[in-house]
Write a structure and sequence with these properties.
Distance between the termini: 112 Å
Order of helices and strands: HHHHHHEE
Number of strands: 2
Largest sheet: 2 strands, antiparallel
Low-confidence stretches: none
Radius of gyration: 32 Å
Strand content: under 5%
Strand order of the largest sheet: 1-2
Mean pLDDT: 79
């Protein structure tokens, strides 16, 4: 006769560094859902974060238990959220820089596409032909149109 004993562990407290990482990921998930309301309506709010917790080896009960633990000492929770805020701010700066570079690239390509097609302009017969129309002054170049 075999006796099966189920050993259900209680919730486990998540170490501070992992809690910081989970809070960071939870805030990113919240922001994503805020930007995509159609997904928010589809998502079961109790399961939205489960993947985040499982990736760290915990579950929702562990997270809630740990959150309650850290909230009992407001200064401890404040330190966690400061770290999360610093990380979000640093990542925001990187994203902002990438967006500015992407917008610059798009603007450049848009302006380039608006530039006139120079392939059909009269081409000089030689380099001397081009230089004959340029007068050199001590502080600038001056172009004299062909007459």
């Amino acid at each position: 006769m075999a006796l099966a004993v189920s050993c259900h562990r209680g919730p486990e407290r998540i170490p501070r560094r992992q809690m910081e990482d989970m809070m960071y990921q939870v805030l990113l998930q919240d922001q994503y859902l805020k930007q995509h309301p159609e997904l928010r309506r589809q998502a079961d709010t109790s399961l939205v974060y489960e993947g985040i917790f499982e990736s760290q080896g915990f579950d929702t009960d562990d997270f809630l238990y740990s959150l309650e633990y850290y909230l009992q000492d407001p200064s401890r929770m404040e330190k966690i959220m400061e770290k999360v805020g610093d990380r979000l701010e640093a990542e925001g700066k990187v994203v902002d820089k990438e967006l500015k570079a992407e917008n610059w690239r798009k603007d450049f390509l848009r302006l380039y596409s608006l530039a006139p097609d120079t392939r059909h302009l009269p081409q000089p017969q030689s380099a001397l032909d081009s230089l004959a129309k340029v007068q050199f002054h001590k502080d600038s170049l001056f172009y004299i149109p062909h007459r």
